[in-house]
Design goal:
The protein is an alpha+beta fold. The protein has a single domain, classed as Alpha-Beta Complex (Fumarylacetoacetate hydrolase, domain 2). Helix content is 22%, strand content 35%. Strand 8 and strand 9 form a beta hairpin. The relative contact order is 0.24.
């Protein structure tokens, strides 16, 4: 199905891009994009062919080791993710080889979201930018041009000990080259373009983690690329 043939996606993306424009007009700057709800069961649930796409801005970015206030959040969730850094513009319909060539490298990221309402309607999810609040992103030069995933190990540390581990960081998200191609296609369908210098966070490498009221830190290591952490206050 063409994205423009799904009225839910059209309405949701139209509202989301209006929100994005409002923030950019207020002085914020575009950082990149995010994907969500791309698991096979979620695609079937929403009757869509690829993950939902949202935006990231510089004001949402926090440096590793920063403290984020969760005051007023309804249901804070953390998602350890792999950030794909785009090194060259990518048009719609590009081959997977071109998508891989556009990947300047990868780095660890943690997305912080507030799931303030049930995830039942893709239009509403899109219109609120897929619950996005913050992204923890290192300022280092990304590693692994082309996005090679071999030899990587993802470790999530929670309450001071290892909480989850995977040696297949694409198992829960799909292939990064497919995600890059998909984002380029979605953006083109709504009058945008995937550009050099932007970042795509590619989805949680483990099931999203609900942040409990007594938790104050989460760390994520993408070995051997790098590690980041974030602390919370309420």
């Amino acid at each position: 199905m063409n994205l423009r043939d799904d009225p839910r996606i059209v309405r949701g993306m139209t509202a989301q891009f209006a929100l994005r424009r409002q923030r950019l007009d207020g002085g914020d700057k575009l950082l990149g994009w995010k994907v969500g709800f791309g698991l096979p069961a979620q695609l079937r649930q929403f009757n869509i062919t690829g993950p939902l796409v949202g935006f990231l801005t510089q004001n949402a970015r926090v440096a590793p080791g920063s403290t984020v206030s969760l005051a007023g959040w309804a249901k804070p969730v953390a998602e350890p993710e792999v950030a794909v850094h785009i090194g060259s513009d990518l048009a719609a319909g590009a081959t997977l080889e071109a998508a891989a060539a556009a990947i300047a490298g990868i780095s660890p990221a943690i997305e912080l979201a507030d799931v303030h309402e049930p995830a039942t309607d893709p239009e509403r999810i899109l219109s609120h930018d897929i619950y996005q609040r913050h992204v923890v992103l290192a300022g280092v030069t990304p590693a692994r041009a082309g996005g090679a995933a071999d030899g990587l190990t993802c470790r999530v540390m929670r309450r001071g000990s290892e909480f989850a581990r995977t040696s297949d960081p694409q198992a829960n998200t799909g292939l990064w080259v497919d995600i890059v191609s998909h984002v380029a296609n979605v953006l083109a369908a709504f009058g945008e373009r995937l550009r050099a210098g932007e970042v795509i966070i590619t989805g949680s490498v483990v099931p999203p983690i609900a942040i409990e009221p007594d938790e104050n830190e989460l760390a994520f290591a993408l070995d051997p690329v790098g590690a980041i952490a974030v602390t919370f206050i309420r």
